[in-house]
Amino acid sequence: MAKTAKPDFFQKTSIRYTIFVYFTVSALVMILLIGVSLYGRLSGQLTATIREENQAAISRINLSVDSYLRTLMKLSDSLYYGVIKNADLSEEADTVNSEITLLYDNNKDSVANIALLSKKGELLSAVPAARLKTGMDVTGEQWFKDTLNRPENLHFSMPHVQYIFDNSENQYRWVISLSRAVEITQGTSTDQGVLLIDIAYGSLQQLLDNAAMGNQGYLYLANSSGELIYHPKIQLIDAGLEEENTPAVQNYRDGNYQEIYQGKQRDVVVKSVGYTGWKLVGVTPRQGFSLNNLKTRLFMVFVIAFFLFLLALINSYISSRITAPIEELEKSVNALEEGALDTQVYLGGSYEIQHLGRSIGDMAKRIQTLMEDIVAEHESKRKSEFDTLQSQINPHFLYNTLDIIVWMIENEKKQDAVKVVTALARFFRISLSRGKSIIPVKDELEHVRNYLMIQQMRFKNKFTYQIQADEQVLSLASLKLMLQPLVENAIYHGMEFMDGDGEIVVKVCRQQESLLFMIQDNGLGMTKEQVQGLLTEKNHSSSRRGSGIGVKNVNERIRLYFGEEYGLSIQSEPDEGTVVKICLPAVPFDELAEGEEKP
Known about the structure:
Heat Shock Protein 90, elongated, 599 residues
């Protein structure tokens, strides 16, 4: 069963780093577990504390609001029982108005208007307002009707803009109206009336704006029907940009509630405001119940940093003690990987590491011996393969050449026969070259010249050839039997079936640090697929009548001797001929010949 491959991360990290990470992660997990436990406990305690603080804050604010409203109700009692009830308005109107003015002056920070109205809606006295607005009939107002229908109660209205008095200074002032039924004496008659006190909304708003409900909390004031009297975002709510859970206020009783509103959990504290029936509601989002104050965060950061520092020191010491011998052994192994097989392998550390070091040392010695054997065997095999490749001269070429010689002798063409025999002798002399694979360019050109001469006579001058070479390249090094297979390919596959005369041109020149051979013919040419096949298929270009050495073999020999950046390139088009280029390094023959072994 195959083993599962490890991720690249573990393959590329050191054992010291791995041990350090594992130890640190394990310790961090334990710290996190402890931290989560402590956090949960502290968070629970904090939640309980915040709830208690919110309850206390609501109680304090409720006490302040209640005291504020009681002051206004006492003002109402003072006006009624101390000024209006025992006064005869028909005779003491000015006195009543003076006393109302005095009480107004003492409370004008929280009171906008004080007015006394008859049952019929007539304005009997008003401070600081002077008169009702033209056409204003207060008897049709709901607050006026409720006051007369329930004379035993004090009535508080919702916040509104003062609209019944014609007073330029207070014309657009926001107020909450406190009204009550009173007895009015005018001469011998007594009748009902209405005492109206416009409470300045700003004074109540200021009282509530200064109240705090902890982190992210807020409070608002609503009546028993859920209508908002005060809210820190009242303008946004009126504009429809914000919402508040006012319908739930009707069901609230004094106490603590937990609710989900608009997908968010929050704690709600409710407290009724005395005589009014209003409800003071404190709201704290649950995210405010967190350990997020500055001191707590700094303390937690300090604790975590301290533990991380200790962990780093302890884990670094432990990992270094464990991995130091392994790292030393790894240095020895790296030296062995770089080829220094005689490196002294580290043998320190624990028993297991010492045993591993001895095993690696023994293995390195065996590898060194095996490598020496493999190198020797590879060199021998490589030389044998090249010798075999160089000796692949097709017998058909020799038979055909001898037939030409016999035919020439029989037809008394002795001079031509002598040329062919001489060319054949030189051809074989250079082919053998005393077992050398590297020969001068001039010998390689002489070899291909002899071959072309023989083939030209054989094909009865069906083609012509030219060999062009700069004088300076003749002494450079070339690979033996490199040009003949390419010229042979041009003859048998490029010109054998041509209607006209063929032409083969062999050129040699130097381009900077490269030696360039070019074999050009005007034969039938090839398609791109045929060109690709010459360089990929084994012995694709070989012929029974030729040498049997394929173009692919020539290319492989060049790369084997000189490197992958050198070799063949072929350019050909059907009916346009073929150009084969060979690129070799421009190296003098003497430099390469010194390193080549002789048979």
